[in-house]
Amino acid sequence: MVNKEVEMVSKTKRFIVPAKLIEELPYHNMARAREEVGPAYDYMSNSLLPEADINVSIDHIKQVPANFKSHIEPHKHRVSEVYVVIGDLTVEVILDGEKHEVSGPAGVFIPAGMMHTMRPLRGSGYFAAVMGGGKYE
Question: How far is CA 116 from the centre of its chain?
Answer without folding.
Answer: 14
